[in-house]
Write a structure and sequence with these properties.
The protein starts with a helix and ends with a helix. The chain has one domain. It is globular. The chain is built from seven helices and no strands. It has 177 residues and is mainly α.
Length: 177
């Protein structure tokens, strides 16, 4: 999995790029939170849940169904989030979807249960350029952690910055018309 900070990069870029006219600060904060929610499943390690179990890491919380449910949650909470319902659905769904996609592009682990409840199978993308982050802090603070961060800068943060720039230029172009 990418680090928890890198999971927020695509949704921060999307939210900032769309601007406060469409994405309220509350919605952006909720989307950033939902971008990391799938990894709350690591609590299962401490509860004795096996990694390969559908309740384990990268199980049901890394499914398109879960992303859809998070989008529905945003749709319901849209008035509290100070935004339109479709925007809340889109951003929270996209936050979880981006998490799933990033994990499917990593170099390790069991893959993501993207199609649960239809299938318990775990999947990766054929091309997996993102170095998988170690689950322990001790392993992270060393050469392996530096390699992970370099990988994330190249494959997560740089594309997110490009997305932000494209959206910014598009928004700016709309204003000059």
């Amino acid at each position: 999995m990418p680090t928890i900070l890198s999971h927020t990069a695509p949704i921060l870029a999307l939210g900032a790029g769309l601007g406060t006219k469409h994405v309220s600060p509350r919605l952006l904060l909720a989307a950033v939170f939902f971008a990391i929610v799938p990894d709350f499943d690591v609590i299962g390690f401490h509860l004795g849940v096996n990694y390969a179990n559908i309740l384990g890491h990268r199980g049901f919380s890394h499914s398109l169904f879960f992303a859809f449910c998070c989008g529905v949650f945003g749709f319901i909470l849209a008035p509290f989030l100070h935004c339109r319902r479709p925007t809340a659905f889109f951003l929270l769904f996209t936050a979880v979807f981006s998490h799933i996609a990033l994990d499917a592009a990593t170099s390790g682990g069991f893959g993501v249960a993207a199609f649960w409840p239809v299938s318990d199978a775990r999947y990766f993308f054929p091309w997996r350029p993102i170095r998988v982050s170690p689950l322990s802090l001790r392993a992270f603070f060393g050469a392996r952690g530096i390699a992970v961060l370099k990988s994330e800068l190249l494959w997560v943060w740089l594309p997110s910055a490009a997305l932000l720039l494209i959206l910014f230029l598009f928004q700016r172009g709309k204003k000059t018309r």
